[in-house]
Amino acid sequence: MDPPGFFPLIVRGGQGVTARHDGSTLTLQFRKSPVAAGDPTTYGRMPHGSAAWVDRPVNDAEPSVLKQQMNRTDAESAAGVLRINDRFWMFLCSNTNAGFFEVFRSEPAFMQVKFD
User: Fold this and answer.
1) In a domain? residue 64
2) pTM, to two decimals
3) What strands lie across the sheet with 50-53, from one edge to the other?
């Protein structure tokens, strides 16, 4: 069970996402999407290299940086996915009010395409 106060932030890969790893922490900088991520069928509305909450865009008072404790292999995996325009990653975040989101856990996220 996820702790209270943590919410899913969806990041769309592409130019605009910058990832660094210092040996124990992945630091990811992103642009703020002007639209909410929504559900997997609407993730594609977000611009490349941006992030948004499921229910709303990241607001002006919120940071555009997140930090997650993880090993180098996992950090390289996440960063590799986020170099691809149409790939997504979900970070379960809480605002630290110190200029970045703290991440409890993260995982790949997948856009769904509807076929008629």
Assistant:
1) no
2) 0.95
3) 18-21, 25-29, 65-69, 101-109, 88-95, 7-12, 50-53, 31-32
